[in-house]
Amino acid sequence: MLKKNLNKLALLLGVVLFASCSEDDSIDKSDNSAGEETSVYITDSPVDQANVKAVFITVSEVKLNGKAIEGFQKSTIEISSLTKGNTEMLGKLNLDAGTTSSIELVLADSDDNNNAPGNYLVTKGGTKQELSGATQIQLNDQVEIIEGTKNDIVLDFDLRKSIKQEGDQYTFVSGGKLQNSLRAVNTSNAGILKGNVENTSDANAESVIAYAYKKGEFNDSEKEGDQGVRFNNAVSSSVVSESNGDFEIHFLEEGDYEMYFASYSDDDQDGKLEFSGLVNAEAIGGLDLNGVSVEANTTVNLEITFKGILDL
Length: 312
Hints:
- The chain has three helices and 23 strands.
- It is mostly beta strands.
- The protein has one domain (36-309).
- Strands 16, 17, 18, 19, 20, 21, 22 and 23 form an eight-stranded mixed beta sheet that branches. Strands 2, 3, 4, 7, 8, 9 and 10 form a seven-stranded antiparallel beta sheet that branches. Strands 5-1-12-15 form a four-stranded mixed beta sheet.
- A hairpin with a 4-residue loop joins strand 8 (120-123) and strand 9 (128-130).
- This is DUF4382 domain-containing protein.
- Keywords: Signal.
């Protein structure tokens, strides 16, 4: 009888221990997989200062919804090389589905070898200049985390908007403007706009920039600029290639856009491009450049012809 009772007790203990282990495994799994898998990348819209060769930033921390990317180490990035859809991964984390409440990018004063400065540009003459200013950037933009799918979030650090030039000196724009120079996009909700200009020489420019605006958000004050930055409310931009007329703007959220083209020349040979005027541009085939529709996961192709400068 004693042996029989001991066998029953052993069996009961085994069941209890198995249930306990199963419960612990379930809890661990839930903790590790809570939320939606989210990868975070960084990209750049190109700088348009004529004398700038490269721009470097050093990222020390990235937070979404107050949650830091686990295991992230300080990283110095040649941000000016990440154009035309190129990105660099910052890391991964799990986030709850829904609209983010906050996105924060923290820049370091020293690079990933602990040498100062951490954020700087290199001129075409080879001079390194520190980019001083705010280093804790709270994005004004938010992004949707989609339930039941892998989310790829791209932070677009628009150098054209974030750097101002005064004489031969460069700095980051003030805090509020710097916040506006970054945007966040979920690639599941984004498309690409590519184009070709058949006659770039008709812009009479050293450089032509293509700007994409959300429909209805462009006005003449955009040409005047703020803190030395024109077309500040453009969603993104692209340099039109001198050699073949190509341009491309990536990570545009689904919606309707207006396209504008601006002509720049260094008329006084000071290493700074001066705004010459808006280009009179038309889409070949009758498409209205004031109503370009971009859909998620698709590419819009534009064929453009220039017909001189509007603002002479």
